[in-house]
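Following up on my earlier thread - several people asked me to post the actual chain instead of describing it. Fair enough. Here it is, all 327 residues.
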Amino acid sequence: MTALADFLIIVLGLLSCSSAVLLPQSPLVPSPNQQFTSPQSSAPLPLVVWHGLGDNYKADRLRSVGEIANAANPGTYTYFIRIDDDPSSDRTATFLGNVTEQVFKVCSDLAAHPILSKASAINALGFSQGGQFLRAYVERCNRPPVHTLVTFGSQHNGISEFQNCGENDWVCQSWDGYLKRNTWSHFVQSRLVPAQYYRDPEDLPGYLENSNFLADINNERAVKVTYKENLKKLSKFVMYMFSEDVTVVPKESAWFAEYNQTSEEITWLKERRIYKEDWLGLQWMDKRKRLEFKIAEGKHMQLSEELLSDAFKRYFGGCASSDEKVS
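Reply from S.P.:
Thanks for posting it. Predicted structure:
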């Protein structure tokens, strides 16, 4: 790791969205004696989890997520997505890296996984930025296919601010200014992860021309039929928005809504062209009751065991039935 990269991580940490799951946790590693039962049986579908910014796949806080999932649906096999097997490097990859390349790696990893690759379907849980990254997985590859996708505080319609800086936090203010001035540069769009889902409604031309990631997975340049058809294969797409989220700006992005900072107007999903013209199949899914918009009380990633357990029981229980097969 170079000194420059270390410095960027520190600076970006000041500007970043915290993805901390507020639960006492330690790494979840499948026991060598753990038995995996095919999803065609009574066992629940395997669960894959993509963590958020500043976290890593072996973080202590993730263990209880797997434990809660297993308690809610006994026998759940949980896999934590990682960009690098080294936890420190995996954390670095949440700040620095090309998201398109990262999603491609995850597609390859899951397709080659000795357990997940044999599953008829999997369930997927995304925390913060991990939510839109999992949606990209569904749209771009989806092998093994996702049955139900649940996201918490994700930025499906991007962010319009990197982070509010304190009045006297000159380092934060300087780098926030740098990112805003250079958001659409090739360097930033190919290397700084949060910039790749930055979306300013007041600068849509710059966004549409230069966005490395979000404009593509939201089908805002041109409708890629594969993306739309893959997303429509979800049995359920559940989006949680945190009621007091001030980390993600705008918080309504968790529901694909758009917020105009000048007029302070919110344009909800059903009022937007992405829904009316059905660029992603969201209207099609909504009419079949496959979309759910949920509120999680509290600040960004303030997750209680009760909330997670309820979500796991409600959305990850059971397995894909023959009349609900994901293909």
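DSSP finds 13 helices and eight strands in the chain. That should answer part of your original question.
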